[in-house]
Amino acid sequence: MVSRRDQIKRVAAGLFVENGVAGTSVRDIAERVGMLSGSLYHHFPSKDAIAFAILDDFLTDLNARYRSVLPHVSGMREELRALVYSSIEIAEMHPYATEIYQNEMSYHGPGAPDAIAEAVRTAHTFWIDAATRASATGELRAGLDPVDFARMLREGVWWSIRYHRAHLSERRDEVTDTVVAAFVDGGAAPVIQANSDAGGAEGPIADRLDRIERRLEELAKHLVDEP
């Protein structure tokens, strides 16, 4: 059963995205929940406290999920896919938390609350560490800065969540696969295939072109030699 406190946070989150924290009043939240404004103050001292709780709960669960899944995967693709999928899962559990963070400068700007800023730094570290490991092992394409790559991938995930918010639960796997294909597979170092033997049809393109040219030369010589 959803507690009254969680109900307030969920309702407030939707209003904060619709109208902004500044444009939402305690009365707006209370009316949408179906309670008196005075009663709401028994759960939260202010609307800013509600916004803080929404983000704090989200980031706490997000970092806990990252910590729980990463020890069970290895390699660039599996680690980053786990981070993408986990992010979407936690975003489903905390509707609109990512959008509130993106929209509200007071939570991601220089004056952000210390607890929120520290939790965000911790979350970023998981992505940066995974990309840095991939760079060190040669899995990340040479020339890509792991920190920039991690930031772009992470931001791509959060904007994808925002774009697919209305149907996120039904499209979790699809969104994950799309993000991984676009960013992770696209950022992977190219696989160098071993050369096949000289007569093989699947050798490198340059070798096949050389064989074709030699064959054309042989055919031309044969035609010239014919009476």
Mean pLDDT: 88
Q: Which fold name is given in CATH as the topology of the largest domain?
A: Tetracycline Repressor, domain 2
Count of helix runs: 11
Radius of gyration: 27 Å
The geometry reads as elongated
Quaternary state of the chains: single chain
Can you identify the CATH class of the largest domain? Mainly Alpha
Number of separate domains: 2
Low-confidence stretches: 198-202, 223-227
Structural class: mainly alpha
Question: How would you spell out the order of helices and strands?
Answer: HHHHHHHHHHH
Based on the coordinates given, report the CATH architecture of the largest domain.
Answer: Orthogonal Bundle
Helix fraction by DSSP (H/I, runs of at least 4): over 70%
Write down how many β-strands occur, each being a DSSP E stretch of 2 or more residues. 0
